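Lab notebook page, bench 4
Experiment: in silico fold of construct C2
Operator: M.H.
Input chain length: 128 residues
Purpose: comparison with the prior construct
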Amino acid sequence: MIRHVLATAAVVLSLGAGAAMAQQPGSEQRCGWLDNPTPGNASLYDKDGEWTIAVQGGHQAKGDWPPPYKAGEWRKSGNGSYGYGCACMTVKVDTEEKNVLEIVSARARPLSACRKDKALSAVEKQLH
């Protein structure tokens, strides 16, 4: 009985820690197409339009991108490993400039998640 209670408490604590990370003050979750067409250039396209993550020689968001993708979930376009995929990111943004200032966390999603979202379905055609 005590083991069960301790195990349950450990799960609740770990879930709470993950929720706290995603709920950092000033951050929000945005899900959509992550596009990295060339070195130093990246954007996230969601229901609210394009959010600039990086511009070569200019704006660069703090944090890591892209998240790790499973085989077949990152579509290569152009040279090297550049391309696009579906992602959810917890980010801090400048809403006036539509820039991502910081990526708190990011996770890859199946391509089908973005393709099924009516707000995002037409965006993939622009990323090819």
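Observations: Confidence is low (pLDDT under 50) at residues 1-22. Residues 48 and 79 are 29 Å apart (CA to CA).
Next step: discuss at group meeting.
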